[in-house]
Structure formats: structure tokens, C-alpha cells
From TrEMBL:
GO terms for molecular function: ATP binding; galactokinase activity; metal ion binding. This is Galactokinase. GO terms for biological process: galactose metabolic process. Residues 9-57 form the Galactokinase N-terminal domain. Residues 284-348 form the GHMP kinase C-terminal domain. The lineage of its organism: Bacteria, Pseudomonadati, Bacteroidota, Bacteroidia, Bacteroidales. The gene is galK.
Length: 384
């Protein structure tokens, strides 16, 4: 994303002067899917694609915002009743309101923003947008600076209270806390976190986007969450200390096999194994063992496809192609039912893999997948 491009649009749409420029990244999650609401670990990292916004206080009591990508201009006040109708503007409005609730004296400002996070690819463009404005407003108007954790919570609260999405904290956390060359293991129960080195020399990280999103995602998500809670309730009868599947092991699960449905058992088996896989990947990264990382990614895909049943034909097909091409690791990334696979690919296999994936996918499904190379990068920051 080009600062000069954003600046040129800001100058054109406002008074010809310039403000301050801020950026926040989108994110990937290397491993740890459907573990967050089970009290487990996730393992995200910020990427080199994100949002850039230029912002300048305007001395008024309203925000004048221009979306460069949508070519859309909106003005809104800073009181609760001033919520704009445009969905993209509600993100900015929500951040303003959440910062005000936390004691930041937000005033009116002019802003223009643009992004290069691919929409619908599971890289959290909305979190990047929220984090950009939370970081910027804290810098511009925050006398008592809010810490980074609270900035991530501002983004999450914006989704909950102004955009109708009951998301977890991972996306905003990764966007704010991102660090070049490192992934972040976040404990979703305690919110403790630790950086782990991710410098895969000789490998590339690439997303292959199936360009499909199946509609049953939200209802299926709720059903799987219920399955996990059913198993926890059964185990809790003999292990009252258990709160989440994170507290369980396979021995506990097998002890209640006759008390839960086959479906619930499968869902819990996947989650218990996935929580352990995140820890195994962390250990492997500390040793620079990317082959084990890749093996665990394939295990995750198999679990999401066969046990949690949140994959789809297109994603399984892309995963099979990766395996056939000798790709080190591949799995569905995100909640499932569409979106991307994330792939850890040796440099010398990259061209063959991408060419094969595009050709075979188009032959089978009649369209080409999109390909995004990603590099692990820094989190929210001021550019100038």
C-alpha cells in the first residue's frame, strides 16, 4: 500500500493540507482454528497487507471520512445517535465511540483511507481498519495513553456494539501486536501471549483463495460450539474443575464416549488435538523445524475436514494439490466453508505448485483461485 497515493487522495478531498498517516496490518493464523472459544491457543501473525489512513483534526464536532477504495464520502457526529448508515463508516464511528467511552477526548477529524487486504480471504480487513483508527485516535487525542491491549479490545467492542459481529479478540490482537519475523501465541483464556520466531528461510508463505464462501457458516459455527459445550458438560460431572475443552485430554473424552453423540465426540477430538498441535508447532519453531510445522498443518486440515467438518470440496481439493506437489504444509485457514488455504512452500517448489493449483482448480471448478504471498510484518504504527 502506497502512502503517497493515500496522501494525494486526502489532499484532493480535503483542504489541500496534510495530516498524520497511520497503518495496521491484516493477519494470518498459522495454526489453532476453533480453539479460541474452547479456551485454547491461537497462533496468528500480522502480514504485509493492511490499511493506511491519513487523519487530521478539523476543529469541528464531526468526522469527515473518505473511503478511497469505495470512492464514498460520509460525515457523522461523535454522539451515539450520530451512527452513519454506510457499513464501512460504522467501523470508524464505532472506534470513535469506544475510545470516548474509555476517556479519550476524541474531536472531529478529516480522514481518507485505503487498504490492500484482500476482502473475503480471511485476513481480517475489518480488524486492520479498526486497529488503524484506534491507534491513531490514541496518538492524536489520548492524553492518558491507552495500552495496546485496550486498543485491541476497542476494535473487538466496535464489532460487537456497532457492526453486529460477536468476534473473538484474535484479529485485533494480531493487528495491534504484530511483530516482523514473529508469530504470537495467544492464550485465549488468560490473554497471556508470547512471540515465537518465524523466519522460514528457503520457504514462502502463500494463501490460495478458493473464492468461495458457503452460506451455512454461521449456523454451522454455532452448532459446533454447542457440541464442544455438550462434551464439557459431560466431562464436568466427574471433573468439576473443567471449564473448557482446553482443560480436557483424550482420556477424559473417551471416558464419556457413551454419554455424548458421535458427532459431539468428533468435534471435541479435533479441538483437543488442535490445542496440542499449537504447542507442538511452537516447540518446532524454536528449533527451526519447519518440516514438523508443515506436518502439523496437514493434520489440522484433516481434522477440520473429517472431524470438525468445516472444510468444503474446493478447500480439500487445494489441500490435495499441495500434498501432491510436495508442499511442506497446507491447511484451510479460518472458520471454514470457503476462503483460503495457507501453505508453507519451499522456494524451489513455489512456481510448480502455483501453476498446478491454478490449472487443476480451473479445470475442476471453472474459475481460477487467487494467490496471495504474505510476509510476517509489524503491527499498528504511525508512518509519518
Amino acid at each position: 500500500m502506497d502512502i503517497e497515493f493515500v496522501r494525494s487522495r486526502f489532499i484532493k478531498h480535503f483542504d489541500g493540507t496534510t495530516g498524520s498517516v497511520y497503518a495496521s496490518p491484516g493477519r494470518i493464523n498459522l495454526i489453532g482454528e476453533h480453539t479460541d472459544y474452547n479456551g485454547g491457543f491461537v497462533f496468528p501473525g500480522a502480514v504485509d497487507k493492511g490499511m493506511i489512513a491519513e487523519i487530521k483534526p478539523n476543529g469541528k464536532d464531526k468526522v469527515c471520512a473518505y473511503s478511497i477504495d469505495l470512492k464514498d464520502y460520509v460525515e457523522f457526529g461523535l454522539n451515539e445517535e450520530d451512527a452513519p448508515k454506510a457499513s464501512w463508516a460504522r467501523y470508524i464511528f464505532g472506534v470513535c465511540r469506544e475510545m470516548i467511552k474509555r476517556g479519550v477526548d476524541v474531536k472531529g477529524f478529516n480522514t481518507a483511507f485505503a487498504g490492500d487486504v484482500p476482502l473475503g480471504a480471511g485476513m481480517s480487513s475489518s480488524a486492520a481498519l479498526e486497529s488503524t483508527y484506534a491507534f491513531a485516535l490514541n496518538d492524536l487525542f489520548g492524553d492518558n495513553k491507552i495500552d495496546k491491549f485496550e486498543l485491541a479490545k476497542v476494535g473487538q467492542a466496535t464489532e460487537h456494539n456497532y457492526c453486529g459481529v460477536k468476534c473473538g479478540i484474535m484479529d485485533q490482537f494480531a493487528s495491534v501486536f504484530g511483530k516482523e519475523g514473529s508469530l504470537i501465541r495467544l492464550d485465549c483464556r488468560s490473554l497471556e501471549y508470547q512471540y515465537f520466531p518465524f523466519k522460514p528461510e528457503g520457504y514462502r508463505l502463500v494463501l490460495v483463495d478458493s473464492v468461495v464462501k458457503h452460506e451455512l457458516a454461521s449456523s454451522a459455527y454455532n452448532k459446533r460450539r454447542q457440541s464442544c459445550e455438550n462434551v464439557v458438560a459431560a466431562i464436568k460431572k466427574t471433573h468439576p474443575e473443567v471449564e473448557f475443552l482446553r482443560d480436557c485430554n483424550m482420556e477424559m473424552l473417551n471416558a464419556v464416549k457413551g454419554e455424548v453423540s458421535e458427532e459431539d465426540y468428533m468435534r471435541a477430538e479435533y479441538v483437543i488435538e488442535e490445542i496440542q498441535r499449537v504447542l507442538d508447532v511452537c516447540d518446532a519453531l524454536e528449533k527451526g523445524d519447519y518440516e514438523t510445522v508443515g506436518q502439523k498443518m496437514y493434520e489440522t486440515h484433516h481434522g477440520m475436514s473429517k472431524l470438525y467438518e468445516v472444510s468444503c470440496e474446493e478447500l480439500d481439493f487445494l489441500n490435495d494439490i499441495a500434498f501432491d506437489c510436495g508442499v511442506t504444509g497446507s491447511r484451510v485457514m479460518g472458520g471454514g466453508f470457503g476462503g483460503c488455504t495457507i501453505n508453507l512452500v519451499k522456494n524451489e517448489l513455489y512456481e510448480t505448485f502455483i501453476t498446478t493449483a491454478k490449472e487443476r482448480f480451473k479445470e475442476k471448478f471453472g474459475r481460477s483461485p487467487k494467490v496471495y504471498d504474505v510476509v510476517i510484518s509489524d503491527g499498528s504504527r504511525k508512518l509519518c
